[in-house]
Write a structure and sequence with these properties.
It is a single chain. Helix 3 packs across helix 6 and helix 5 runs parallel beside helix 8. The protein has a single domain, classed as Spore Coat Polysaccharide Biosynthesis Protein SpsA, Chain A (Alpha-Beta Complex). The protein has eight helices and nine strands. The longest helix is centred in the middle third of the chain and has 17 residues. Strand 2, helix 2 and strand 3 form a beta-alpha-beta unit. It is globular, with a radius of gyration of 17 Å. Helix content is 38%, strand content 19%.
Length: 249
């Protein structure tokens, strides 16, 4: 059966990740999905690694435990490289946040869209039916404005939400990315890596599709890991490089 690997980059998520893993358990008996979970610990200072190791569930769960904090870009690349080495042609890779703000019950619909022909499916905040709860007005506005800039200056057909990390990838698309870019596939350290990865994969003209997401940031426990000002700066720098630099060639 086609395998689905869900990659969860985690940094200091001991308060939220168990709730997320419990939500995944309801997918354990799904008749059309063979699901595995990979948590990539980004040098957490809390008990994230311990609670993942101690979690008892029916879905196969692995842990990549990094001692040092390297940033979202590094652990995401670690997880995608793991997928390349452990999955086979036709399998699907899911990426999502580990803070319980993304609902894994959307995964069956994302997988179905991949099976219908898409190469990349994004859980979008900007499609009809999407909702966001718990985000500040400032973050909502800056995210929308950033997305608008990218749609104008770095358009990706079928995409409005450039920064959301909840995505489903056809494994072959990720292999194309690693074969062409190698370790350069993800160079950004922070949250801007999601934009970078999308734009680099766009070189291969993937068929992209978006599904409306209900973002529940109000369910997140603990403080945000995002430095909003820095993320804005690095994301705009990625856009500049895409338009005028050599990183995406």
């Amino acid at each position: 059966m086609q395998k689905i690997l869900a990659i969860l980059p985690a940094y200091n998520e001991e308060a939220s990740i168990v709730d997320l893993l419990k939500n995944y358990e309801s997918l354990a008996q799904h008749p059309d999905i063979s699901l595995n979970i990979l948590v990539v610990n980004d040098g957490s200072k809390d008990q994230t690694a311990k609670v993942v190791k101690n979690f008892k569930g029916s879905i196969p769960l692995d842990l990549l435990d990094n001692d040092q904090n390297g940033g979202l870009g590094k652990v995401l690349k670690d997880g995608l490289r793991y997928a390349i080495h452990h999955l086979k042609e036709g399998d699907i890779v899911i990426t999502m946040d580990a803070d319980n703000s993304h609902n894994p019950h959307l995964i069956p619909r994302m997988v179905q869209q991949i099976r219908e022909g898409s190469s990349l499916v994004i859980a979008s905040r900007y499609r009809q039916g999407a909702r966001s709860y718990g985000l500040s007005f400032f973050r909502t506005c800056t995210s929308f404005l950033a997305g608008s800039l990218f749609m104008i200056f770095a358009p990706v057909k079928g995409v409005r939400d450039y920064t959301c990390g909840f995505r489903a990838y056809r494994l072959e698309l990720l292999k194309q990315g690693f074969d062409y870019f190698g370790e350069r596939l993800i160079e950004e350290k922070g949250f801007s890596c999601m934009v970078e990865l999308l734009l680099k994969l766009n070189r291969f003209r993937p068929i992209c599709h978006e599904l409306p997401m209900i973002l529940r940031y109000d369910l997140k426990k603990g403080s945000s890991k995002m430095n909003v000002r820095k993320t804005i700066q690095t994301t705009l720098a990625v856009l500049w490089q895409y338009r005028f630099g050599n990183r995406f060639k």
